[in-house]
Structures
1.
Amino acid sequence: MKELRSLNKLIDAFKSFPSIGSKTAERMGYSLLDMDNEEVNNLLKAISEAKSEIHACPICGLLTEDEECSICKNQNRDHSVCIVLSYAKDVYNFEKLENYHGVYHVLNGVISSLHGVGPEDLRINELLERIPKEGIKEIILATNPTLEGETTALYIARILKDKNVKVTRLAYGLPAGGQLEYVDELTIEKALDNRTDIK
């Protein structure tokens, strides 16, 4: 049987998504072929709109369709407390909590020598600028409890040592080597409540 090169390219494209293996990518490829033209066009339109309309908030790095995100614009939020996250998607677990009303800062990654990501590649300078500008009194480091996440948290804690700001780390609680996006709200809430000072 002749190889379907265009289908193979489609399957390879789906495999580039996180957590999508060969079998799942294959099912997605065949499912797309089963769609009628209107469904395919709607899918393409949705992808195109998301890519053109959604961007990072220039202040905190969260995803937004507005000039600034709704959290940064909200004067009722406590701008003196800031949770620092590796990725924008990690914010949703914190926003489900009823007892956190502070703001966020997204680093856009973690320090990783394996992947060639250094501190200069992250949004650390933007965080330093926000501290005096917004009157931030506490930084809560909420990077994932992986080797890279811990390295990033310790680096940030070190450069904030001489700043007039309290630096804490989420309590664990959170499984070592885990990812925040897969953690339930109760575990997140307990980790936030029991956060510890970083010396």
Note: The chain has a mean pLDDT of 90.
2.
Amino acid sequence: MDQRTKRTLWVVAGVVVLVALVAHHNISSDTIILFFVIIPSIILHEVSHGWVAKAFGDDTAARAGRLTLNPVKHIDPVGTLIVPALLALGGFGVFGWAKPVPVNVSRLRSPRNQGVLVSLAGPAMNVALAAIGGVVFVQVFKPALLQGGPFTVPGRIVFFFSVVNIGLAAFNMLPIPPLDGSVLFERVLPARYWPNYLRFRQYTMPIIMGLVLLNFYLHPGPLTWLLSHLYNWWAGVLGLPGLFG
């Protein structure tokens, strides 16, 4: 399948998801906003890994054409479209992922040390985006709310963009491979075990999916509990305490 055909399929899939979300009357406008702000957030998270890796000598992502903000290059059909849409339609909130940006740790000038920075670049990007969104919300939209004005759609977009990025940063810092937080464990792992660990690491995605499925099965599960407390804390920082119950 050529690249033009793939791009066309992703555009069609995105339109189908949009129509499904709009047509499903049980979906709130906030859920739709969450769905659409999470996509650029996870894309920027992934691209930041490639940017930092390139700065440290690994141009794998650049050669693969992945150091771009074009969302089509980063869409994972399951993680970016299907899973978030199904969760939104089912009323479970929004969760998703983009296609990982390729990084060859062995090509970094200092693989063990710089590999930590490459991994932490994703959550750091989310924290920066959350801070930017928070500042814009507080400076531009919060004053009108304090005066009794409506919570406008642009204000909600900026607010939930900030909230989503706080959640993505926290989730990705869980010390479970292949999440970025596992790099803290990797760094203290004896060097002789590191090559074997890296080979094992690429097969650990089912662990994360199992954790997510367990969370939805328990409803609310440990992830929901953790994120709800985090979201309430962040809403309080932005001056909207108790917004998430």
Note: The chain has one domain: 17-237.
3.
Amino acid sequence: MVPVAGLLYDDDRITAFGLFAEAYTGLVNRFSSQLAEYGLSMIEFEVLIRLARSPRQRLRMTDLAGQVALTSSGLTRVVDRLERDGLVCREACPRDRRGSWAVLTETGRARLTAALPGHLALLERHFTSRFAADERELVMARLRDIRDDVHPGARPPQRTARR
């Protein structure tokens, strides 16, 4: 007879998460190598892409920290490096003297644009090509559900329609 604990060790939920973690780690390693060719770390790329996809290509530092899962001080260090390299700049928040915006610069946009074709090729080769179009929609929906459940601060602000 197999002890009860042995059955728990073989639980498919543990296997599923382990496979997810191994796949994620492998993808990050591939992406990190490719992005390093453009002088970017994964977190720097993540900050730049979040800014590029935001209205007016800027985000409040507190919102950006939540989206990239960094503490305020961790994000400050990343933005300091990006600012030193001319890829982002900071702007004071007019409504909150303590707040500031991280803003993508033209140089940052150019660096991101140069890195994206290789990044997208790796995404297609190692991730998105594994799913049919209808499966991609389901995978994206489930990943958003999980993200919103375990890390609600990562959800980008809802865009409002202009009147």
Note: The first helix runs from residue 4 to 9.
